[in-house]
């Protein structure tokens, strides 16, 4: 793997764990979750900070930016470290991408949570930093480490650490991000710097990022080996556990809102759909899936969610609307008993 032609200022690698001296404290400490508003209130293309869900596992790290360093090391020929200023001097990219929370790793993935938002991220492509570090051929995984530490579900960890295959890490859309929706990352969003992995569940986008390592195996911590490995049905011995990586096809209705009284017989149904591999089609039904109306579907912008709109002809009375998306890889959103099962909205046509 060749180094990028335009070299940028870096610093020598730090002593072991020296980058962790930028940690000040946790505030607040411990698990914290802020749920998003209901789907009908997520009706703008870009989700503002106040409407975007928050999931913090062990506490929000307060970081001393003057001491913050990003270390790039492991199985590389050119290990280095960066200050925040040096990172910002690298060429940046901005991408629009949905961000979805997988949900609790402690329960079977059968409940649809729709912790979802659509935001713009700005930062340095992860591939740029990896190319400058020159990974060895033996490197097959990239580990990313945050400054947070503590306990989650009674399991202690001295750091939040995730991994991803190096083939994924070299994709151009992955960012070492320092801004969201045009503003510097706040503490609760993982600032000053976090990883962003568009198309993958939020658990893979390490917050309070301080270290990137190329290794020849998966990271050994609890957030890779204990939590966020899907095995469903849990009692199926032939179904191996697998990491929670890519987002399956999903969708939600934003108009009409639940229990709305709408004039008929023509009823417009609008919403948004998303998937790791882009959504190819969305169907809308008012008869529990016996028939479907194919919706008009907007193209994806970067890794954004996609708006859809369908016209249904409905008689007066109560109706249950369903929306179902299909990914370009052929996967279909399930009707029930899955974390991404179809969204149902009851309305009354008057």
DSSP strand (E) fraction? 35-45%
Across the major sheet, the strand order is 6-5-16-9-12
Continuous helix count: 4
CATH architecture annotation name of the largest domain: Alpha-Beta Complex
Number of DSSP-assigned strands: 27
Describe the largest sheet: 5 strands, mixed
Q: CATH class of the largest domain, please?
A: Alpha Beta
The CATH topology of the largest domain turns out to be Sulfite Oxidase, Chain A, domain 2
Average pLDDT, all residues:
94
The CATH homologous superfamily of the largest domain is termed Oxidoreductase, molybdopterin-binding domain
How many discrete structural domains? 2
From the helix content, strand content and strand pairing, which structural class follows? Answer: mainly beta
Description:
- The protein is mostly beta strands and 350 residues long.
- It folds into two domains: 18-243, Oxidoreductase, molybdopterin-binding domain (Sulfite Oxidase, Chain A, domain 2, Alpha-Beta Complex), CATH 3.90.420.10; 250-349, Immunoglobulin-like, CATH 2.60.40.
- It contains four helices and 27 strands.
- It has helices at residues 84-88, 126-133, 166-169, 222-225; strands at 23-29, 32-34, 54-56, 59-63, 70-74, 80-82, 93-100, 116-125, 141-146, 150-152, 155-157, 161-165, 175-180, 183-184, 194-196, 209-215, 229-230, 242-243, 250-255, 261-262, 266-274, 279-285, 293-294, 296-297, 306-313, 317-327, 343-349.
- The protein is elongated.
- Mean pLDDT is 94; it is low at 1-6.
